[in-house]
Amino acid sequence: MESLPTTMKSERRGRSKPLQTSKPSLLMAFFSCLAWLYVAGRLWQDAENRKVLTNLLYKNSLQRPKILTVEDKLTVLGCRDLERRIVEAEMELTLAKSQGYLNKQLQQSGSSSGKKLLAVIGVYTGFGSRLKRNVFRGSWMPKGDALRKLEERGVVIRFVIGRSANRGDSLDRNINEENRSTKDFLILEGHEEAQEELPKKAKFFLSTAVQKWDADFFVKVDDNIDLDLEALIGLLERRRGQDGAYIGCMKSGDVISEEGKPWYEPDWWKFGDEKSYFRHAGSALIILSKNLAQYVNINSASLKTYAHDDTSVGSWMMGLQATYIDDNRLCCSSIRQDKVCSLA
């Protein structure tokens, strides 16, 4: 009987041992799951970080300059050489234009007779100046057949006028009627005749005249002076064949910066602290050689005008290889006995 409990106890111990060994296994399994979850989480986080870093590197690679191959470098060098040659060609073209070389169409244009003229003289006039024109026609300026004979000598004289702001009105009709009778006008179709537009009139006059006549000189004359025509012709004859000639009574003067005063210059600040104009031919009588007039014609769209026509023309000449000829005989207010012009 005593052996039975002993046997039962030994059986219970034998059965209880597996229960005791399963607890550590469960704990190990639990901790293994936690470790797996931790490692998986870290791996997922590392994968996300790598993805973000990859995107950042890709974006930075797009912003970095491309590594040029030998072919790319040769292409760049070729473009730079082509750009240099284009710039040189533009400089040569500008120089050629300044020297009076024109396209074929302009070269073929000239006087209707095909004869090389000495000069084209443009006398500025306005709509209300008919009386002045009649006085000129009876004094220093030939009229009728005498004007035609003067042209045979190589000198063309025309009154220069633009069009009315109201095209086709009585002002335009009166000029057209007067011109049909006298045939001594050069009408600037693209120019509006107004006092404030006077600086632009020089561009229109020179551009129109140089396309209409083939002359050595182009002369602008105000309508408040009298000319010694033969003296002017003699002066131009002695200068004939001289390119780049900018002739006149050269002067300078103060730039008027106070608005409302006579001769006010809106662009006064461009003339420096001294506020003094550069050297230029006085407005009463300005003479340009053919190549300078052609330069104005070619570049008229980009040439800057100032408040006065004489300073405007002078500013155009400053950037050219023009020969400034200061002739006191062209100073109309001078007391010289041999002066070419005088105040009317």
List the helices and strands and how they pair.
Elements: H1 3-63, H2 70-98, H3 104-108, E1 117-124, H4 130-137, H5 145-152, E2 155-163, H6 170-182, E3 185-192, H7 198-212, E4 215-221, E5 225-227, H8 229-239, E6 245-254, E7 276-289, H9 290-299, H10 309-318, E8 323-326, E9 341-343
Parallel strand pairs: 1-2, 1-4, 2-3, 6-8
Antiparallel strand pairs: 4-7, 5-9, 6-7
Helix pairs in contact: 7-9, 7-10
Overview of this protein structure:
- The chain has 344 residues and is α/β, with parallel strands linked by helices.
- It has helices at residues 3-63, 70-98, 104-108, 130-137, 145-152, 170-182, 198-212, 229-239, 290-299, 309-318, and strands at residues 117-124, 155-163, 185-192, 215-221, 225-227, 245-254, 276-289, 323-326, 341-343.
- Strand 2 (155-163), helix 6 (170-182) and strand 3 (185-192) form a beta-alpha-beta unit.
- The longest helix is centred in the N-terminal third of the chain and has 61 residues, at 3-63.
- It is elongated.
